[in-house]
Amino acid sequence: MSSSFLYARRTGIKGTSILPLSKVEAINVMKSNRGIDFQLGVLGGADLQSVMRVYGEFAPYTKVNSVQELLGSMASS
């Protein structure tokens, strides 16, 4: 079974914040946050460990517990 993850990352900052979230919810978050100064996207994989292996160029990953924490992690960077 495949899972979806919303991620946030900023140019010049090493690392990516990631949140398990349904694809529909992740897309809605991305739509409601257009024009921000960092990148939001959706990654898919069997689980978080698989995503971390496949998308190693985004490492290191920091798992967050909410959309607010995800967005806040980029605002404080």
Could you outline the blueprint of secondary structure elements for this entry?
Blueprint: E1 3-9, E2 16-20, H1 23-32, E3 39-45, H2 48-54, E4 61-63, H3 67-75
Parallel strand pairs: 2-4
Antiparallel strand pairs: 1-2, 1-3
Structural class of the helix and strand makeup? alpha+beta
Biggest sheet strand line-up: 3-1-2-4
Number of strands: 4
Task: Spell the H/E element sequence.
Answer: EEHEHEH
The major pleated sheet works out as: 4 strands, mixed
Please state roughly what percent of the residues sit in beta strands, choosing from under 5%, 5-15%, 15-25%, 25-35%, 35-45% or over 45%.
Answer: 25-35%
Low-confidence stretches are none
What's the overall average pLDDT, rounded? 91
Please work out how many helical segments DSSP would assign.
3
**What is the general shape?**
globular
Helicity level: 25-40%
Kindly provide the radius of gyration, computed on alpha-carbon positions and rounded to a whole number of angstroms: 11 Å
The first-to-last residue Cα distance is: 33 Å
Description:
The structure is a single chain. By secondary structure, this protein is α+β, with helices and mostly antiparallel strands. The protein is built from 3 helices and 4 strands; from the N terminus they run ββαβαβα. The protein has helices spanning 23-32, 48-54, 67-75; strands spanning 3-9, 16-20, 39-45, 61-63. Strand 1 (3-9) and strand 2 (16-20) form a beta hairpin. The protein starts with a strand and ends with a helix.
